[in-house]
Design a protein that fits this description.
The structure holds two protein chains of two kinds. Chain A has eight helices and nine strands. By secondary structure, chain A is of the alpha/beta class. Chain B is of the alpha+beta class. Helix content of chain B is 27%, strand content 32%. In chain B, a hairpin with a 6-residue loop joins β3 and β4. Classes of the chains: A alpha/beta, B alpha+beta. The complex binds guanosine-5'-triphosphate (GTP), magnesium ion and zinc ion (2 copies).
Amino acid sequence: MCLTCGCGDAMDHEHGHEHGHEHGHEHGHEHGHEHGAGRLLRVEQDLLAGNARHATAVRQRLQRQRILGLNLVSSPGSGKTTLLTRTIERLNAAAQRCWVIEGDQQTSRDAERIKAAGAEAIQINTGKGCHLDAHGVGHALDALTLEAGGVLFIENVGNLVCPAMFDLGEAHKVVILSVTEGEDKPIKYPHMFAASGLMILNKIDLLPYVPFDVDACVAHAKRVNPRIDVIELSAHTGEGLDAWISWLNRERDALSALLGDEPPPPAV
Amino acid sequence: MHELSLAMSLVEIIEAEAARQDFHKVRSVLMEIGELSCVEVEAMRLAFEVAVRGTVAEAATLEIEITPGAARCPDCGHLAQISSHLSPCPQCGAMGLIACGGDQLRIKELEVD
Ligand SMILES: Nc1nc2c(ncn2[C@@H]2O[C@H](COP(=O)(O)OP(=O)(O)OP(=O)(O)O)[C@@H](O)[C@H]2O)c(=O)[nH]1
Ligand SMILES: [Mg+2]
Ligand SMILES: [Zn+2]
Ligand SMILES: [Zn+2]
């Protein structure tokens, strides 16, 4: 069951208007004065407040279990699933747990690829939806057997625009850009790069064959987001993968340093 | 089209308010959109028309107020008004300003019966 919304059922249900009464005093006092002929109500509510509530619940749940949550975003075909299958092999070899939530409009092909690589995975099909939301992620967590420690990867729907706005409860968004897409993507789609903590430049094995200026790309990304980290790699050949695994370890250590190593005993 | 899911959240908020504050018809909706919010105003208008069908806001007009983006210059410390993540510092010309406001996406006012 969904602790945030109290719904008892599957992942893709629609919420009616039963949410949204726990806001307290910040909304909805009446003005008293007239405007046109109708009654004027001040509402002052954030459109993303519903998603933010679910995202906070996901984040707290992951933090309680000392799990590093990462939201992988990119345009279609940048190599997210390939990178994940490679990463899973490396983490499994080091006896580190990870789980994957796969978001695609249709099919469970990517979840099958992840399972074949040796990790537990659950597929969310968004249908016409162009991004995952935190409510769906919360329900997907229920279907995974999470243990303390480890990394949760959420592969978002391939789209460089829409997922930027929706917090899924992750510790970081990681944006993946492949060298066949052009070095100007960070300035063409600045929101995604502004929202991400790390940019992975993938498919560097293709650099000899495509005109792509790595330095210009990194400069563009830093212009949009001065604090973004950058890792260059090839999910295909494995070159540069060490830097990514080190980044993962560093972020996991940072989480333990922040919260303490041992998760608290489960609430009764 | 994330504007559609946002418009649906907007309608959810309105319906909840309708039950709470006892109104049956919305004449107009005033929304605030920050310039750095990644929402296309025209797409939002279209999505709104679709999302309000069959709800108390079916006949409502949508008014949109745009709030400028705000960012801090890492070089000179100037607090600047910017219209995109790519804007340079108006004071010293530096790039890479750190955004600190202007991504609002709020419903502000309803005119109702
Ligand atoms: N040359 C090369 N090809 C790669 C690399 N990484 C992925 N690919 C290829 O790029 C294509 C897309 O890879 P996926 O891993 O399916 O990409 P994705 O981002 O998961 O795609 P969607 O989930 O559909 O958005 C496949 O043909 C991969 O084999 C790489 O580092 N180098
Ligand atoms: Mg994929
Ligand atoms: Zn639910
Ligand atoms: Zn400056």
